Amino acid sequence: RSGSKHATTPADNYYLARRRTLQVVVSSLLTEAGFESAEKAAVETLTEMLQSYISEIGRSAKSYCEHTARTQPTLSDIVVTLVEMGFNVETLPAYAKRSQRMVITAPPVTNQPVTPKALTAGQNKPHPSHIPGHFPEFPDPHTYIKTPTYREPVSDYQVLREKAASQRRDVERALTRFMAKTGETQSLFKDDVSTFPLIAARPFTVPYLTALLPSELEMQQMEETDSSEQDDQTDTENLPLHMSTDDSGPEKENTSVLQQNSSLSGSRNGEENVIDNPYLRPVKKPKIRRKK
Amino acid sequence: MNRKKGDKGFESPRPYKLTHQVVCINNINFQRKSVVGYVELTIFPTVANLNRIKLNSKQCRIYRVRVNDLEAAFIYNDPTLEVCHHESKQNLNYFSNAYAAAVSAVDPDAGNGELCIKVPSELWKHVDELKVLKVHINFSLDQPKGGLHFVVPNMEGSMAERGAHVFSCGYQNSTRFWFPCVDSYSELCTWKLEYTVDAAMVAVSNGDLVETVYTHDMRKKTFHYMLTIPTAASNISLAIGPFEILVDPYMHEVTHFCLPQLLPLLKHTTSYLHEVFEFYEEILTCRYPYSCFKTVFIDEAYVEVAAYASMSIFSTNLLHSAMIIDETPLTRRCLAQALAQQFFGCFISRMSWSDEWVLKGISGYIYGLWMKKTFGVNEYRHWIKQELDQIVAYELKTGGVLLHPIFGGGKEKDNPASHLHFSIKHPHTLSWEYYTMFQCKAHLVMRLIENRISMEFMLQVFNKLLSLASTASSQKFQSHMWSQMLVSTSGFLKSISNVSGKDIQPLIKQWVDQSGVVKFYGSFAFNRKRNVLELEIKQDYTSPGTQKYVGPLKVTVQELDGSFNHTLQIEENSLKHDIPCHSKSRRNKKKKIPLMNGEEVDMDLSAMDADSPLLWIRIDPDMSVLRKVEFEQSDFMWQYQLRYERDVVAQEEAILALEKFPTPASRLALTDILEQEQCFYRVRMLACFCLAKIANSMVSTWTGPPAMKSLFTRMFCCKTCPNIVKTNNFMNFQSYFLQKTMPVAMALLRDVHNLCPKEVLMFILDLIKYNDNRKNKFSDNYYRAELIDALANSVTPAVSVNNEVRTLDNLNPDVRLILEEITRFLNMEKLLPSYRHTITVSCLKAIRVLQKNGHVPSDPALFKSYAEYGHFVDVRIAALEAVVDYTKVDRSYEELQWLLTMVQNDPVPYIRHKILDMLTKNPPFTKNMESPLCNEALVDQLWKLMNSGTSHDWRLRCGAVDLYFTLFGLSRPSCLPLPELGLVLNLKEKKAVLNPMIIPESVANNQEPVNSTSNHGQSVGFQNTFSNSQEEEEIDMDTVHDSQAFIYHHLNMLERPSTPGKEQSSGEMNMHPVLAAPLSVFAKESNSSKHSDHHHHHHHEHKKKKKKHKHKHKHKHKHDNKEKEKDPFAFSNSPASARSIRSPSLSD
Predict the structure, then answer these.
(1) CA-CA distance, B862 to B845, in Å (whole number)?
(2) Which CATH number fits domain A10-97: 1.10.20.10, 3.90.550.10, 3.10.150.10, 2.60.40.3880?
(3) Where is the Bromodomain associated domain (chain A) (predicted)?
(4) Is the ipTM of this complex over 0.90?
(5) CA B290 to CA B309: how far, in whole Å?
(6) Residues in chain B within 8 Å Cβ distance of A179
């Protein structure tokens, strides 16, 4: 990330600051090791390595801590991590107390990030006596307080009708506007296509179906109202009227038609006569002509 | 002519009798829209030297004809394909005559036909012994444009999955469009019909389905039908499609068919049919004549109802669910109509075209009886009144409808309908509107006959006709009884006189043999001294479409003491009639007043004239004359009539009369009627509109809320919150209809500024807003549609400043509200479409109203998109109507062209017909109007349309003729340039004094005028007689040419050697400088070699007798087998062959 001088976001700033600090650390370690100077590329490489190393410690430690169902890593997490990475932890205190170590001043902290204040409403409840003080504070009252409402539910006829009407109208308007926005439209005014958008007319392949068939909702209503009336008619509907074009089994179908027919009449009509309608009769097989 | 023949028998115009016909269609290709099949006609010669058999066939390609298995030569010639070949001729008179002649030339009732088959010489001996002949014809149809209509939705899947279907259709006898036959209603025979269709499809046709058999590959099946009742070819029909089948639960021999997915609707729609059956069988005391009945509901129907032998084809749009109120009575009426025609029209057929009125009359009459029984007397009388008003208006407009035209030899009678721009000699030349009115008049006249002889006798007559026919139908052909199944005017009248013993000849003479209606003007005075009502009844019998009435006329007078009928004798000179009154004007206040129906009522008599005992007077209350009555009585009498007369017709008349009396008393009478629940709902609906008109006339003195508002609030709004309408409950149909109508009428209210009152608009908007149908058993789509109509009615012309362009910014705020609703409704239709898209239809109409009133920029683009193929037919019609209106208002040539293109190309015949119809009713210009649209190109285009573009559809062609007449009139269109040479020649021929102006009106109107084959001098003289006056009319140069051509033609005739073929070219050269027609025409015509001479004679072909058409035509294609292979189609559509039919008549 060289030369990104114009980086402005706080994240970028932190990144650059960390990187700079690490560079200082690497340089001081190099100085400690007796180097007088180093190529920039070498420093960069070392910095990269150091950063990776530290990152890995952090990542690993986090895993360990989460593994034990905690959110904050403890010292032991770090220790285990270091051990896991093949680092001899014993040597660490001694290294830390070595004489020639250089002390690096903390980087100047500029613009401390302001954590946005969480919404507070009301006073947080103090802990009751049986809860130790180190436990987290109670959350804001609004998160658990229940306010019972005692307002009368609206039952005034006029208001209800008013409400239903405007609600329906709003829904319809929103829906149609949405449809108009997402699809093709027509307009009555050449200069304005948005105020009265008309969903474009689209021809149907079978126009009579949409025009004649009631909507599903209406169908339901109808069934509710006159289901009794339809009862005695429904069986004719199920008669096998359409031979499928399936080539394999017209013969099979024929027999099934016959069976269905007879079973139907048997179950339904009982003593009554079978409906004798030529259109319900089975289709005959062609006569096999033996010529020659 | 027919009457003289008596009812002994029917004389066939053909030299043979058809006994049986086989129609076999063995292949139907939906993809290519083609049909392949054969027919076989069994005929018995009735004359020994039969050597030619004429049959009807149009569109069909005929591959091969065999007579008794011998190859036969045949000629296919259809002069109706292109009526006039003389392209410069563009006057309608000329066309109509030529068209009538062309139709005559192939008219089966005159023994003619398009297809002429030569009986092979080997069979001549056979024929001489009058032995049976079997004529076998192989034919195919490719993309038929008429007669058979294919509906093939453009989508994925097999034809059955797509719901593709095909059905026969047409106007009158149109069977020849789909198979060769004797296409006459009078040639009966038995039938065997076979259709091989895809295994997933069903073929529905006439007669009994004998069996269904798979083909050998099991992919198809063949439906075998037998029709043993002798039936005319014109009553044969077919419908093939993947139909769902419903066996009628009440009558197992009745089967209903509909397109896939519509079965629930079919069930509901047909659930009522058995009651209609029962009704007809009961009143006719006669079983339904066929052994089965089939109803088929198909898409893109030609007409809503088409009746054929033992089956009817309906529009699928008649299907409806139980939730739909408005469509139910309409559909039931269609079913009842179709069934009535099964008895009269299909089973009993007609002898000739001039007997058509008997069939239409009887079927319409018994349908009326059904109406009376089903919907009640009020509805029946309302319907009769409506029909009467319609026929009266039409006859007064056009000059008369003649039920029984007689075409004798006399010159006078040759053209019984000279006031019309078409010939009434054939059904195929009739304007559709005329035919509709013809049917209307026919059933009204039947009702008049009933009035005369009583219903009982009437039904006995019908029963007699039916029993004769059914006896005849079961006989073998050899018994010569089949003609008993044909009804003729004379036979019918004889039956009537036999059964009733009454002489109805005067009635027939008045209403059947002559056209026109009666126009009465009535007024009265009360003579107090003599206690007499002096009634004056005048007639107008000089205006077109009227006739003089002489005979009895019933007058009903409601007096204080009761209602009294008087029968006046209307005679030549008596205008005044004295009617003695029963009551003295002194009135007893306590006494109730007896009404006609015996009821006694209390009346507030304060409004009456103190000196007169008359409450109201009605002339011809039973509508027993086809008449229009304009009667004068004072406003209070109309008000009494409205309130207390129990006859709905009287109430409706009173309402119409009260429009002229905008007084508080009228207002009160109307409001009272509106509120009265016992009152017939249609009367109440009518009262709404009258009240709106009265309120507008009284606007300055009107007190209280807008008319009907408080009434509506009281009837339909919540008690607690009067501004909110109750949730919909349409259980009471009468109040439903009232609820629908009142807002529509209210929206017609206007304030002093001639604007719709804001209060009314807000009221309607609230109705829309609070409309709630959730708890309703019925659909509210018609109600909502009418609320939109109400919004449209409230629109008044925009106040325009300096013709500013209409934009959103200057939109009137009220209009903005209206637009808001329309937009929402129209958009919601896309998501939740309403039944028959009634709401879309109303929205489109409303948008056009807004455009027309200048609130929204006038633009046809929206309508054009809704008019495209693929929208529901009602929507298309509404959109097209708007485009037609736009074309007129904005004089748009582009839109006119667009419409005419659609007339030519649209896949749906009904749409094509309807566009012409709408253009005729709302024409962009008329003949006396200057218009930029009226130009030569348009004349050419329309001329072509009717001359050759519409030969596949009689109705469409007649529609084109109507339009041409409306736009250009009878003579040569004024926008055509005057032919250059015309004037010169006119001068040259001055001796002959060819006054061109009057000729088209008089000469050309005669259908078959003078027989002037040789004597041109006489003809000239004949024209000469018309040469006076008429200066005001423009010169019709065309006729000049006609006359010149005529003369030159005869000159040529004199010089012509006997062989015309050689001489004709020189003759043609002679003609060129004479005729002013463009040379190119001739150059083109002469290419067609042998036929080229005919057009010289052509102008006068209509003056020749029919005989001329029977000449043999040597130049026509004779096809034997080998030729057929090479050129099988040349004869089918070739204009060359078509035009030659009458050409050599003179030279022969």
Answers:
(1) 12
(2) 1.10.20.10
(3) 14-91
(4) no
(5) 8
(6) 827, 830-831
